[in-house]
Write a structure and sequence with these properties.
By secondary structure, the chain is α+β, with helices and mostly antiparallel strands. Helix content is 38%, strand content 20%. The protein has 2 domains: 280 residues, Nucleotidyltransferase, domain 5, CATH 3.30.420.40; 177 residues, Nucleotidyltransferase, domain 5 (2-Layer Sandwich), CATH 3.30.420. The protein contains 16 helices and 24 strands. It is globular. Pfam families: FGGY_C, FGGY_N.
């Protein structure tokens, strides 16, 4: 008889990952499938739900079982997570009607946000969502479909996010977790944990999936899904959550005051709070189980900036990697390490996909400022890494001003593999950064949520049976005077160029429309 285990699968922005975990938290196997986003025009960011979300899930599950002696019947629970909140309209048979609109990096619904703020008023929105509407909110994107693609909207039976779609494919049941539902602002009342009936101008509540706690079993694998995936028919599936929330669980965020700082393709923050905190700069939500709450924030870029630089300016390193002579990211990091602290005065604004918290400006643009003929590629990449740290510090400062007080900061995500980046964050934010012993990521958190669902554990605090802090990065304050100057310039540069950024955005949209016509 094979070992009893749990399955966790996470769909990310640029890759999906799955794990098989035994009941003691040991990882039996993991598998990663890379994929790409689609950007049909400025501000539009999408995934193909069949080719990316569902196909990745199937490939991962089959590879995990192939890599182990685990039999399908020995998988006692399934947890999933995904980027979010996303917007995917499906018909009565669950067939996607268009590409999925992604989370806050997709900024198409600016006019819809303005309309809803005018019709509902900011006070009403705050009373439902606990925060202002931003590009992160899914409600305005549903309205965008209704306004701009009426033929799609008229055929829609359900609006789903990423893990909701996978759950639907697995079980035939539309479901979403309460944490993720909060991302559908202003359609979800975070204080009463229910869909809001009086939002018919956007969508009927009959077109929104039932909301559950993340660990609750919402259905079981159907015969059709079993045939496609190789899983056993009848295997329990829990509601799951977004990738960031699952990552927070995997990092050991279990107590009030714990903050997860996730360094992925974008940067995300989750802080456990004693109650829902009303905020105009951050997002508020229930957390994974009853009587748990969180404040959330996110930068639109992070690791995606490093990937962009590699693809545009790292041809030498990419060729080396192709020929088996190292890793392109590691080679670029070496260049950055050879650049002096402060990157010879270059300041970068990392707003290459607009920005979410705390400035909430979907039309913000990226800037390299202060370039001279003296500067090198190493200076540029170091300045990019610094900019990520300055953006994180900006979030930390505004959180503190709003009474959101992290007790400890726990690192998570792929950025943990970049020691220069993590040290810069510690130095520039003057913060101790804790490192968990398990760094698998969101899929590990998914498996843990499944463990609660099938009765292995009682609550999310039990993650401490699987996770512990193994080390920390301490801030080096020896260069803090220069970082203070650069941080002040970082903040001032945005203030002085904001109007110009918006003019450039309008120009880019106009040029894109001309090219498409």
């Amino acid at each position: 008889m094979g070992k009893t285990c749990l399955l966790g699968v996470d769909v990310g922005t640029y890759s999906s990952k799955g794990v098989l975990v035994d009941l003691d938290g040991n990882v039996l196997a993991s598998h990663v499938v890379p994929h790409q986003i689609e950007i049909p025009k400025p501000g539009f960011v999408e995934h193909d739900p069949e080719k990316v979300w569902w196909n990745d899930f199937v490939v991962i599950v089959r590879n995990l079982m192939k890599a182990t002696d685990v039999q399908p019947k020995n998988i006692i629970g399934i947890g999933t997570s995904g980027i979010g909140p996303c917007v995917l309209p499906v018909d009565k048979d669950g067939k996607p009607l268009r590409k999925a609109i992604l989370y806050g990096v997709d900024t198409r619904a600016g006019d819809e946000i303005d309309y809803l703020e005018e019709v509902l008023g900011e006070k009403k929105i705050l009373s439902l969502a606990g925060s202002k509407l931003t590009s992160q909110a899914a409600g305005p994107k549903v309205l965008w479909i209704r306004r701009n693609e009426p033929e799609v909207y008229s055929k829609a039976r359900w609006f789903l996010t990423s893990q909701s779609y996978i759950i639907y494919k697995l079980t035939g049941k539309p479901a979403i977790d309460i944490y993720s539902a909060a991302g559908y602002a202003p359609l979800f009342d975070v204080f009463n944990r229910k869909w809001v009936d009086e939002m018919e101008m956007i969508v009927s509540t009959k077109m929104l999936p039932e909301a559950f706690w993340s660990h609750e079993i919402v259905g079981r694998v159907t015969s059709t899904a079993a045939s496609e995936t190789g899983l056993s028919e009848g295997t329990p599936v829990v509601a799951g959550t977004t990738d960031a929330a699952a990552e927070a669980i995997s990092a050991g965020v279990s107590q009030i005051g714990d903050m997860m700082l996730m360094l992925g393709s974008s940067v995300f923050f989750i802080v456990r709070t004693p109650k829902i905190i009303m905020s105009e700069n951050f997002w508020s939500s229930n957390f994974m189980q009853e009587n748990t709450f969180a404040a959330l924030g996110g930068m639109s870029t992070g690791g995606s900036l490093i990937t962009w630089f590699r693809d545009q300016f790292g041809q030498i390193e990419l060729e080396m990697e192709k020929n088996g002579k190292g890793n392109a990211f590691e080679e670029l990091s070496k260049l950055a390490s050879n650049s002096p602290k402060g990157a010879r005065g270059i300041i970068v604004l990392p707003y290459f996909a607009g920005e979410r918290t705390p400035i909430n400006d979907p039309e913000a643009k990226g800037i390299f400022f202060g370039l001279t003929l003296q500067h090198t590629r190493g200076d540029l990449i170091r300045a990019i890494l610094e900019s990520i740290a300055y953006g994180i510090r900006h979030n930390f400062e505004v959180m503190t001003q709003e009474g959101i007080q992290p007790r400890r900061v726990i690192l998570a995500g792929g950025g943990l593999k970049n020691p220069l980046l993590t040290q810069l964050i510690a130095d520039i934010c003057t913060s101790k950064l804790n490192i968990p012993n398990q760094q698998i990521g969101a899929s590990y958190g998914d498996a843990f949520l499944a463990a609660i669902g099938v009765g292995v554990f009682k609550n999310i605090e039990a993650i401490n049976n699987w996770i512990e802090i193994q080390g920390a990065i301490e801030p080096d304050l020896s260069f803090s005077d220069i970082y203070e100057i650069k941080y002040r310039l970082f903040r001032e540069l945005y203030s002085q160029t904001k109007a110009l950024m918006h003019d450039v955005h309008n120009l880019q949209v106009r040029l894109s429309d001309q090219q498409l016509s």
